[in-house]
């Protein structure tokens, strides 16, 4: 075969491969669209809900924005108000005035995607449920200011807690802890491996390579191939999943000093406000059958060790609850309740998106009702409100 004939055959072969890949991509995209009830894959992996907050120098939510997040597992509305906080409603609310007078209890909540309520209608997530329950027990209206942002580390959240929320004079701060207590970073850290591009998060600076990577994440071939790999893989990749680059690896540090240091950092600007730390475990700690979904992140042995370290730290912390409560620090550990409900057959986490279902959110919130520390928490909130000028 001549050189020109060989070149023609090679081009023809490449064209056939390209056409077949495009056909496969189209078929898999249609499959995803059908199984998601009309949502496209791009909407699952890259909801355009982010914006850079130039005042704070960190990324956050996109102010005055509404969006419907559709995937094969959920279809939920997202409403973000003028202060870049997720709220209940069909349309964005005007920006609330920081420092405005409020006769009830002001609760500030922070966290990553779990606190934001990824995958559930906002009123079905645990922060609004917890705030509503506390309001009932205190017989007072509650204003919830939820500054949670998906994929955001505690160091980034601390920047906003310290620099913005003092004007709201909160009576309670709730903090979601996901991925282990070592992720409580007791300093405002504005650097992040994630950046905003086109209202989406990308790894690193929005370079051509990162944009191409973002497009690949929207490919159905990549999505389904990754799912198959996750089910079959043994030893895993060392690459952190999107949104977990800023999380710290497990360490042997003692949990009490960690939580004390973070509490002190929060109170630098907010004063001696009561704090409630909410534990969120890994999905496979509650649903062991979900482990295959995580095997592309690490081997089963590594995942088991990670879960054991996370659980051991919380056990040590619970043994120090008396010390914590004297300092106005409370911990909510819903894991026993989550495991009990999972054993009864309730699906508390989505399998693909690995976040709480509405049922999982409800179990987390309901765990507070039976927590032995609840009376002390309510008493601390009342005392703080009285000392801050409200009625006891």
3D architecture notes:
- The chain is an alpha/beta fold and 392 residues long.
- The protein has a single domain, classed as 3-Layer(aba) Sandwich (Rossmann fold), CATH 3.40.50.1110.
- It has 15 helices and 12 strands.
- The strands form 4 sheets. Strands 7-6-8-11-12 form a 5-stranded parallel sheet, with helices on both faces. The chain has a 3-stranded antiparallel sheet with strand order 3-4-5, with no helix packed on it. It has a two-stranded antiparallel sheet with strand order 1-2.
- The longest helix is centred in the N-terminal third of the chain and has 33 residues, at 3-35.
CATH superfamily: SGNH hydrolase
Distance between the termini: 92 Å
Largest beta sheet, briefly? 5 strands, parallel
What order do the SSEs take from the amino end to the carboxyl end, as H and E?
HHEEEEEEHHEHEEEHHHEHHHHEHHH
How many β-strand stretches?
12
Structural class: alpha/beta
Q: Which radius of gyration do the C-alpha atoms yield?
A: 23 Å
> What's the pLDDT, averaged over the residues?
84
Share of residues in helices: 40-55%
Q: Give the low-confidence spans.
A: 234-246
Per CATH, the class reads Alpha Beta
Q: CATH fold name, please?
A: Rossmann fold
Overall 3D form: elongated
């Amino acid at each position: 075969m001549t050189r020109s004939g060989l070149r023609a055959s090679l081009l023809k072969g490449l064209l056939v491969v390209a056409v077949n890949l495009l056909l496969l991509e189209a078929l898999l995209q249609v499959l995803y669209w059908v199984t998601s009830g009309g949502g496209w894959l791009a909407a699952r992996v890259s909801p355009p809900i982010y914006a850079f907050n130039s005042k704070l120098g960190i990324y956050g939510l996109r102010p005055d924005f509404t969006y419907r997040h559709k995937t094969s597992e959920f279809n939920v509305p997202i409403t973000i108000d003028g202060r870049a906080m997720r709220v209940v409603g069909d349309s964005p609310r005007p920006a609330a005035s920081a420092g405005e007078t409020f006769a009830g209890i002001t609760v500030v909540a922070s966290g990553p995607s779990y606190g934001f309520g990824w995958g559930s209608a906002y009123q079905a997530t645990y922060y609004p449920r917890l705030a509503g329950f506390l309001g009932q027990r205190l017989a007072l209206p509650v204003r919830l200011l939820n500054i949670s942002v998906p994929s955001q580390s505690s160091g980034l959240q601390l920047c906003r807690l310290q620099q913005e929320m003092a004007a709201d004079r909160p009576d309670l701060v709730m903090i979601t802890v996901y991925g282990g207590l070592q992720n409580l970073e007791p300093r405002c850290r504005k650097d992040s491996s994630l950046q905003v591009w086109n209202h989406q998060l990308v790894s690193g600076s929005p370079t051509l390579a990162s944009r191409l990577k973002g497009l690949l994440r929207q490919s159905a071939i990549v999505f389904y191939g990754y799912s198959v790999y996750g089910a079959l893989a043994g030893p895993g990749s060392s690459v952190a999943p999107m949104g977990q680059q800023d999380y710290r690896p497990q360490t042997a540090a003692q949990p009490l000093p960690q939580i004390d240091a973070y509490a002190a950092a929060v109170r630098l600007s907010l004063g001696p406000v009561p704090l409630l730390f909410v534990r969120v475990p890994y999905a496979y700690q509650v649903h062991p059958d979900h482990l295959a979904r995580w095997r592309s992140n690490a081997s089963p042995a590594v995942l088991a060790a990670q879960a054991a370290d996370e659980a051991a730290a919380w056990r040590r912390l619970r043994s120090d609850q008396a010390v914590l409560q004297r300092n106005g620090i409370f911990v909510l550990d819903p894991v026993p309740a989550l495991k009990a409900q999972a054993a009864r057959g309730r699906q508390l986490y989505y399998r693909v998106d690995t976040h709480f279902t509405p049922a999982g959110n409800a179990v987390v919130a309901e765990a507070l009702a039976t927590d032995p520390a609840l009376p002390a928490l309510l008493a601390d909130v009342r005392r703080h409100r009285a000392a801050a000028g409200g009625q006891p």
